[in-house]
Amino acid sequence: MDDQTFILFGASGDLAKRKVLPALYNLHRDGKMPRRFTVIGASRRPYSREAFQGLVMDALHQYSRHPVDSDETTAEFLDRFHYVPFDAGNADDYTALKGYLEDLEARAHLPQNRLFYLAMAPDFFGTIAVQLQASGLTSGTGWKRLVIEKPFGHDYRSAAELNRQVSAAFDEREVFRIDHYLGKEMVQNIEIIRFANSIFEPLWNNRFISNVQITSSEVVGVEDRAAYYEKAGALRDMVQNHMMQMLMLIAMEPPSRLNTEAIRDEKVKVLRSLRRYDEAKIAQNVVRGQYLSGRVGGQEVVGYLNEPGVAPTSTTETFVAAKLYVDNFRWAGVPFYIRTGKRMKEKMTKIVVQFESIPDKLFFNKDSSLAPNLLTIHVNPVQGMELSINVEQEESGRVEPSEIDFTRESRNSPEAYERLIEDAMTDDPTFFTRWDEVSLAWKWVDPISEAFQQHQPLYPYIAGSTGPAAADELIRADGFRWWNG
């Protein structure tokens, strides 16, 4: 890994403290950081270097996967941290940052390899990219990379404008758009499950698969994110990025080779094949909901309209379920069902591949009802997969489903941000989103978002449930059911 400087914008913010700083520390403890590196924190707070290092230490104690000891490794890590007060809208602050950075690189004998990480409000993404170039921060003698958090725009038009600004300062190959779901272990393992096992790939088509279900449910509500969530809703917050990424990995064709651009090319083909819906089709194939008060984890919780910062007349959706079709040769006619929501019954992200059923009449003499074979990929909080097959029970003689279980509880393995930050530092963009992925996803989502603002029904659901009844009816109309639990 090249020696480099990690410039963290928004260094005093919640994302930096919860995810980025602990990820850097855990990478350091695991020996996965460069031999020589330094971190410059930049935010509006007027911290001294020592005060910022104290903030870093507090964040590690709260959120680090590894225990934080007062040992030589931790002391060495903290000594890499520096701080510059910074206002993204002030051109003079970029000049000051450039002078500080160049002096630090010279004193530490570091090459001018610079990774800029934007862990701050998306309103500043375009401004920072433009000012980085205007100030000369991107014109060093080494490489430059830009890591951008989601959301990348709030619709296609805003995303295209942001991309124009970013592209003026960075080549596409230098831009790393983070979707933290792509850093999850089992999401990264989807291509291994598919392409490294001959029992699956020959069956991975419309002749043997009846439907695919992708679920990402949360037990938490909007919490302190009402200002963002009121603008985004579940559609923009989850469907346009996380759900689409899992869909692409499940539905993509085998890449010509296992390299970054070949994999991304196949993912993009899925989005190009995704069936677009007009307003009438949106009403038939998309369900949106909003949670009411209820009980989650044994505790009473308020409904969305009573959350702090939420307008009492808000029609923002906290739940989305949809039926999608990938109109290509492999998947013609196979429905892909997605659903995501807040204040659901359980925290769960999983993908269920349901195979075509065997005719029951083969077992008409047995007191049996054949269940479909299921491949379940558990992403979070359980990791691994299950394969459900029908077997005859020894005592009863009944044919019933039995699971071959390859799941495990999340262990002390690298977290998503650790994997993705390491990839960015080593220049591997495989599990980051390319601009054509982002743009095609927005083009699919935008008509649905517009329909939501018109006359699309908003179905209530009780907090602690599995969502509105309309979502069950959506899948039941095709003769299927959601595989819960």
UniProtKB/TrEMBL annotation:
Gene3D superfamilies: Dihydrodipicolinate Reductase, domain 2, NAD(P)-binding Rossmann-like Domain. It comes from the Bacteria. Substrate binds at residues 180, 184, 218, 237, 342, 347. It holds the Pfam family G6PD_N. Coiled coil: none annotated. Keywords: Carbohydrate metabolism, Glucose metabolism, NADP, Oxidoreductase. It catalyses: D-glucose 6-phosphate + NADP(+) = 6-phospho-D-glucono-1,5-lactone + NADPH + H(+). GO terms for molecular function: glucose-6-phosphate dehydrogenase activity. Residues 7-189 form the Glucose-6-phosphate dehydrogenase NAD-binding domain. NADP(+) binds at residues 10-17, 44, 150. This is Glucose-6-phosphate 1-dehydrogenase. The gene is zwf.
